[in-house]
Amino acid sequence: MKGTVAMEDHKILAQKEGNYGHRTVKKPPRIADQWGSAFSEHFEATVPIVTDATWQSLVLKADGPVLVEFWAPWCGPCRMIHPVIGELSKEYDGKLKCFKLNTDDSPSIATQYGIRSIPTIMIFINGEKKDAVIGAVPKTTLTASIEKFL
């Protein structure tokens, strides 16, 4: 029985290190993981988080238009659009409130609004959904959507 446990440990170690039968190769860190944290840090600093607890007060009862990005940390296209949402937040400061909602942390809100793909960017006015843009789209597409409601 001890031999079986040792063999299982060996298999787990081989998977982590990338054992290809005849040699063991250390796997390098993924570039996406390295850049992903940089994008997340930039995005976190510029676009505030909205959660189940703050949804009502920050989005539904807000004065003026509100842009919400529905996203998840594992989503590649979400990471691509994070800097764009950050730029829009700065450009429309005082005219448009921007928030992000992690769909993994707040699945009930994502379900309530029928989020099936991320990133999804929604614009709300007086608590009512006015527009939705799905996918990592160019900044001009988001700007055109925003301008309709300002």
TrEMBL record:
Annotated Pfam families: Thioredoxin
UniProt GO cellular component terms: cytoplasm
Thioredoxin domain mapped to chain residues: 36-150
Any one GO molecular-function label of the UniProt entry: protein-disulfide reductase activity
Keywords: Disulfide bond, Electron transport, Redox-active center, Transit peptide, Transport
Superkingdom of the source species: Eukaryota
Protein name: Thioredoxin domain-containing protein
High-level lineage: Eukaryota, Viridiplantae, Streptophyta, Embryophyta, Tracheophyta
PANTHER family per the UniProt record, alphabetical: GEO12009P1
